[in-house]
Every structure is written in structure tokens, then in C-alpha cells.
Amino acid sequence: MKSAYLFHVGMIPISSAVATTWGIMLALTIFLLLAGRRFSTEPGLLQSALEGIVSAMIDAIEAVIPGKSETLLPFIGTLWVFILISNLCGIVPGLSAPTANLSVTAALAILVFLSVHWYGIKSEGLKRYLHHYTSPSPILLPFHLISEVSRTVALAVRLFGNIMSLEMAALLVLLVGGLLVPIPLLMLHIVEALVQAYIFGMLALIYVSGAIESQQRKKQ
User: Fold this and answer.
1) pLDDT in tens, 1-32
2) What is the spatial distance between Cα 203 and Cα 120, in angstroms, rounded to a whole number?
3) Prior bond of 74 cis (ω within 30°)
4) Is the separation of the CB atoms in 105 and 160 below 8 Å?
5) Separation between Cα atoms, residue 209 and residue 116, nearest integer Å
6) Model pTM?
């Protein structure tokens, strides 16, 4: 029987999704280090493209929570870029999108869950942040907790389900139509990858902004 894992690091099995994720992180790190060395006051095509992408991210964050783009850009921007590239891995022959693996999307959703509380506590302090779970009544505490867990699960399952179904649909179309429909299928995959990355990042941004703004409203 063929193993589901590519190799082991000590006693830890490494799957293709984990290996691809590591590859994406390594490639992004190397690319940004090399690109950063070429930045200048007279930007070339690559620098202009990167600055345009960052500017678009800042505008999107400012539209949701004004004045917090400098704080949230590193986290939300990284989510957008990583998820987009992960989604696009599905169009590379021999690779599968890491986001088509539930363990990867669950890890991303847990990261968002932890970040929401981190930014909320950082905004106003632990005591005041925890108080909003019992506001306006302690009776609502279980409902707040259920809401936190359910939206985290939904975040993971939504991305996983959409990317997995996209890859399965692409495989079925290729099996039926052969290589007669590669370009439309490729365009569909790219558009869906962009859309799903954007949605995940925006939901994360909305959750974080909700944690920050709820504390600001109470302070006012």
C-alpha cells in the first residue's frame, strides 16, 4: 500500500501538503529578499508591481478599519499572498494546492482565531477584552464562545471545500474533454484562486476589526 506521506523528519511524517507549504514559504522568503535588494527611488517594473499590490492591500484594509493598515498589513497581507499562491499551486502539473487539504486550512483558521484575540487584547488589555464576552449579560457567554468556534470551523471548511471541489472539477473536465479545454479551465482556476484568497483574507480582517472596534466603542 502506498504511503500518504512523502518522508519523515524523525518520527514526524511529512505529507505533500506540508512539503508544498514549506516550499511556498521558502520561495516567498527568497523572492522578497532578492526583490528587496533591488528597490530604489526609481522603481522598475517589478518594484512598481509590488508597490501596487501593497497599495491595493492597504486600501482594502483602510476601507474596513481606517487607521489600522500599518498594524494589520503584515498579517492580512501575508494571508492574502500565501493563500493565493497555495491556491494557484493546483494548476502546476504534479502539485496539489495545500489549501485543498483540510489540515492546512484548519491551521490557517486557527491562526486567524488566535490573531483576533491577540489584536483585541493588544487594543485594550486582557481584562477589558474578556469582559465583552459577558456583555451585556453573562448569560450570553456560551453563545459568544460557540460563535467563535463555529466561525473558525466555517473559515477552514469554506476554503478547503471550494479549492478541493475546484481541483476535482478540473480533473473531471480534463478526463472528459482531454486537452481541448485547458485555457478556459486554467482561467477559471486562476479567478477562483483569487476570489477564495480575497474572501478568506477579508473575513479574517473583519473578525480582527470587530475585536478591535468593540473595545474602542466601549472606551468611548
Assistant:
1) 344 566 667 777 778 888 899 999 999 999 98
2) 16
3) no
4) yes
5) 8
6) 0.86
